[in-house]
Write a structure and sequence with these properties.
The complex is a heterodimer of chains A (about 110) and B (about 110). Chain A is built from no helices and 11 strands. Chain A is mainly β. The chains are: A mainly beta (about 110), B mainly beta (about 110). At the A-B interface, strand 4, strand 5, strand 9 and strand 10 of A face strand 4, strand 5, strand 9 and strand 10 of B.
Chain lengths: ~110, ~110
């Protein structure tokens, strides 16, 4: 079945790196995404990776994909208080009209 | 930057009433979606819409739900007879060509059924 799992909470000190992890079950995933949700706001696409890639870097964000283990991670370098939010991992399922399957979200708390 | 616009941002309705949630997708996008997020829970897929018809729907999307693209710009979600458990944040999304560079989500409509 289709399922995406994430740890629910991560606390980091300002300036440190944050690593948010995600596992998924569907091996036919084509794209994997990271979305950010600030309180009361919508879902903001942060970055995505195609399933045949291992890594993607975009400024402070690094996405690592281990397709064998179906494991995805998001590393945020030099974490700032403005990074405090809920981060959702999502996979796009091939064969349909590319609906997204979301994880439950990881709440990132950045403290001084 | 182009946006997906949703209205209203918050709607309160009585149980049993019909509600229509409105969305204006990005103009050159071809795929449209509704998702919902019950407070504290996962974002769940409801329905996808392409070429003026439903392309896929989830188990949640039962006969009480319908979608429509009444003109060239709006995309609506109707709930015919709301239940308390329909209270959630409803997100509209659109994409140019399915997956790839991702979907653009609207800011959501918070529906509260009392």
């Amino acid at each position: 079945g289709e399922d995406v799992e994430q740890s629910l909470f991560l606390s980091v000190r300002e300036g440190d790196s944050s690593v948010i992890n995600c596992t998924y079950t569907d091996s036919s995933s084509t794209y994997l995404y990271w979305y950010k949700q600030e309180p009361g706001a919508g879902l903001q696409l942060l970055t995505y990776i195609f399933s045949n890639m291992d890594m993607k870097q975009d400024q402070r964000l690094t996405v690592l994909l281990n397709k064998k283990d179906k494991h995805l991670s998001l590393r945020i370098a030099d974490t700032q208080t403005g990074d405090s939010a809920i981060y959702f991992c999502a996979e796009s399922i091939s064969g349909g009209y590319n609906k997204l399957i979301f994880g439950a979200g990881t709440r990132l708390a950045v403290h001084p | 930057e182009p946006e997906v616009t949703q209205t209203p941002s918050h709607q309160v309705t009585q149980m049993g009433q019909e509600v229509i949630l409105r969305c204006v997708p990005i103009s050159n996008h071809l795929y449209f979606y509704w998702y919902r997020q019950i407070l504290g829970q996962k974002v769940e897929f409801l329905v996808s819409f392409y070429n003026n018809e439903i392309s896929e729907k989830s188990e949640i999307f039962d006969d009480q739900f319908s979608v429509e693209r009444p003109d060239g710009s709006n995309f609506t979600l109707k709930i015919r007879s709301t239940k308390l458990e329909d209270s959630a944040m409803y997100f509209c999304a659109s994409s140019e060509a399915g997956a790839g560079n991702g979907y653009t989500f609207g800011s959501g409509t918070r529906l509260t059924v009392v």
